Amino acid sequence: MSEAYPGLVLLLVLQVCAWVLLLWRCWGVLGYPLDCKDEQGSIISCTSISLEKLLDRVIQHAELIYHVSEESCTLFEEMFVPVSMHTQQNRARNTCITKAFPIPGSKSEIQKISDKWLLHSVLMLVQSWIEPLVYLQKTLDRYDDAADTILNKTKWVTNKLSSLEQGIVELIRKMLDEGLLAVEHQQTLTRFDAQPEVVESILRDYAVLTCFKKDAHKMEVFLKLLKCRHTDKMSCYIS
Amino acid sequence: MATRLVFLSLVCGAVSVSVGEHLTTSEVPPKRPYFVDCRSPEQETFSCWWSAGDYQNLTGPGALSVFFQKNRDVWRECPDYSTAGENHCYFNSTYTSIWIPYCVQLRSQIQDIVYHQMCFTVDEIVVPDPPVGLNWTLLNISQTGQHFDILIQWEPPPSADVKKGWISLVYEPQYRAINMSDWKPLEVERACYQSVYGLKTGMEYEIRVRCKQAASEKFSEFSEHLYVYIPKVPTKETLFPFTMILIFGAVGVIIVLMLIIFSQQQRLMVYFLPPVPVPKIMGIDPELLKKGKLDELNSILSGHHTFKPELYNDDLWVEFIELDIDDQDGRSHHSDTHKLLGSENLNGNCLNIKDDDSGRASCYEPELPDSDMLDRSQAEAREEKASLLDSEGRAAHSSTTDPSPPGRSHPGATAEGASRSHPQIQSQLSSQSWVNLDFYAQVSNITPAGGVLLSPGQQSKIEKTAEAHSSPKTQKCQLAMTTDSAYTSEMDAKNISATPSLNGNEPKVTVSPYTVSEAPASSVPPVSDYTTVQAVDSQQSLLLNPSTLPTKGTPMPAGYLTPEQLNSIMP
């Protein structure tokens, strides 16, 4: 018995090593819970979410963002914009320059857009507005305390936009099976410089708010179209 | 001259005013043609309409033209002047792009005058069509049948593409009773249904719904009115058992309460009207007094320095009383007093106290009906005693037995009275002044038959006092007798019995409540416990008046006499 003892020990050690190696390689495959961060920043274990739920959540976000942006716009208009400028005529003067690739506006054209294109458009919109909103917060700070509510709303919207961005990225990953390697933040401040007539900061801020409201509406509509296509493909393509 | 000037100025003023009026009216420019509004019902098409203003010559078709600019591009003329109606420019879906700025211009036919320009984006001018397909379903009717709830449902406007999510609408229903003028709005919600609560039966209601885009402020027109009516249902049957239950319940509760009250009347009386606590000697159980446990009582009372407990000293008694043993055998079943009466030597003034349950184990009667009476009697007793004591020469009885169980009767005040009376009694005893004071009459002799002969110590004085204060004395005696318990009753009885035999030593014990069995009671009329003293005879015996019979000869309550009884007894 004593002769086989060292042999047994060696065998045991080898087995342990093999198991460790095996498990090490399969560590990722076996799957452990993803490190997700909740709102407080603590790492909690994530459970995977279904596509429908994710889509619903994303649409909820978009609706809320649109609603709040509309409120901010109205408030700002009431507080700071002179009455003479309230007419639709003057409101529409503040044109918003769209991004690099134009998004079609008519319903028929939009319906022809593919899912992939829709998602990417939404993502692009979301990403393009994070920075201008941060800038807007800074400019709103310069106002007196009357703009506090607008400032708070803007801050809230900025936060929600970030989470919306995460949601869109996740959607893209799930629906299109694409992985986004890098998040590209475009410089968007230049777009407002192209409007030389907008000199006053009030009007500039007002323009930012109205343009953001429009884009938020766009996001909401696109996502809802996407949802329709996801639930009932046939009827959604018929205009 | 002045008048002329005035006249001229007036005329000039009038003229100027009239001219001015003319001028002002003519200076107002005519209203130019203008765009009234642009509207998109479903965010897919839109139309704009205008008004010619004051330019009546431009109202006809073709007089004015509309040009539009899309996204700051070239200006193009309106593609459709007819579809939407007169003075309308209709843009179909091909020309409509959302979120893109449009500008429209109202130009004259010659296209050289721009009357009006308007810029907008299509998403801002969305005003949807009213909802359609209103209907209602009954949710429930209240138990009383007075109110009901309904659920109203409707369809979104058919033009709006809500299904695909192209447009999001929110709805606001309103309702009112037919005869009311104000519409009551309900919550603005996304859902195509809503509940209405609290409608009254028997009243007709009107319901209408309108919608708007979620972020917009412009509501659509109201839908068609929906009429809701539910007739009143007679609900007497539902009310009937409820009221009956109430009535029966109340009656039952009342009955139970009455039963409780009647059954627990005594307790309730005690609870609500507690009896006034009677003063007690601390530490003495009234039970002891009832049972006549004198030893315990004495031990308890030894703590009180006001009271000198005197244990029953049989030896002392023996000094005073010699029992007739022969008689005792025969009369063993008789009470103690009878045994006492059977003794030949009777010096003492106290009857033998045997510890039995009769409760009459005291020669001192602490029971007093009233403290007032006690005071009176005591005062008088003291007076007499003082007078008597002076003439007394007898040796004081060392054995000032004071074996009264003070607690025999009600303790407390009576004990106090007893204690008060004790000294005088003691002095009485000591001086052996057996005067006929409030409590005692000295036994001078005992007849062989067992009768007790009472004789006062100080005869002269007694006589004097008796004659002088016959009535008060009698009263006193009466008092004394009445205040005592059975002892005095015995005394009375003996007095009574002794009355006929005063003159001789005839031991005629004719009447005694305690010797009823032996002595014939016929000779003497039935005597109660108490009688009045008529007079004192030559032998210093009391002559009792047997005629006066108190109405209540039968057991007096524990030796107390109420004042009323006392008054009734007194002659």
Describe the protein's topology.
The complex is a heterodimer of chains A (239) and B (571).
Chain A: H1 5-25, H2 27-30, E1 35-37, E2 43-45, H3 51-80, H4 88-91, H5 107-112, H6 115-141, H7 148-175, H8 190-193, H9 201-231, H10 233-236
Antiparallel strand pairs in A: 1-2
Chain B: H1 2-27, E1 34-39, E2 46-51, E3 64-70, E4 75-77, E5 88-91, E6 101-108, E7 114-121, E8 132-141, E9 147-155, E10 169-177, E11 184-185, E12 193-200, E13 204-213, E14 226-229, H2 236-263, H3 265-272, H4 286-291, H5 294-301, H6 314-320, H7 325-330, H8 336-342, H9 371-391, H10 413-431, E15 443-446, E16 452-454, H11 459-468, H12 470-483, H13 486-498, E17 532-536, E18 542-545, H14 563-569
Antiparallel strand pairs in B: 1-2, 2-5, 3-4, 3-6, 6-7, 8-9, 9-12, 10-11, 10-13, 13-14, 15-16, 17-18
Helix pairs in contact in B: 9-10, 11-12, 12-13
Side-by-side strand order of the widest sheet of chain B: 4-3-6-7
Report the principal-axis shape of chain B.
Answer: elongated
Query: How far is the N terminus from the C terminus of chain A?
Result: 85 Å
Largest sheet of chain B: 4 strands, antiparallel
Biggest sheet strand order of chain A reads 1-2
Helix content of chain A: 55-70%
Largest sheet of chain A: 2 strands, antiparallel
As a whole number of angstroms, the C-alpha radius of gyration of chain B is 63 Å
Note the run of SSEs of chain A as H and E.
Answer: HHEEHHHHHHHH
Distinct helical segment count of chain B: 14
Number of helices in the DSSP assignment of chain A: 10
Oligomer: heterodimer
Class of secondary structure makeup of chain A:
mainly alpha
Report Rg of chain A: 26 Å
Number of strands of chain B: 18
Low-confidence stretches of chain A: 187-199
- The fraction of residues assigned to DSSP E strands of chain A is under 5%
Subcellular location (chain A): Secreted
Protein name (chain A): Somatolactin
Pfam families (chain A): Hormone_1
Family (chain A): Belongs to the somatotropin/prolactin family.
